[in-house]
Amino acid sequence: MTSCNEVLQPSDPRAKLFQYGAWNQEDGEFVLNHEAMDRLRKLNVHDMPKCQGCIAKYNCAGDCYAKSASSTGDPTSTGYTERCHITRELLKDNLLLALIFKMAGVSASGSV
Asked: Which domain does 35 fall in, by range?
């Protein structure tokens, strides 16, 4: 069992980061790895050092952890990725557009 739709196979190098259980054919039941589940619960913007103080942290929720793990090797790395930069720039542009529309008396949907 995996928490990520990009990491489905045990052979994926990121599998150890996202898999939290497996089917036990012999017993006919799922076996959960509670330690892995606890670790996965901590993958959020409140526990990510790189997200502290970031204006866009609630837009991206800490980015895609699989992609972050692919680029840095660690989904909780402290470094900003190119995806972080893109998310912040898009948010900045949206906020500026909303301000321009408000100052012009136009709603974001385009009506006056």
From this structure: 1-41
Per-residue pLDDT tens digits for 44-92: 888 888 888 899 999 988 888 888 777 667 777 767 788 889 999 999 9
Q: How far is CA 76 from CA 24, 27, 69, 100, in A?
A: 30, 35, 8, 36
**Residues 35, 84 share a domain:** no
DSSP string, 26-41: TTTEEEE-HHHHHHHH
Is this prediction's pTM over 0.90? Answer: no
List all residues 6 or more positions away from 49 whose beta carbon is below 8 Å from its beta carbon.
76, 78
How many structural domains are present in the chain?
A: 2
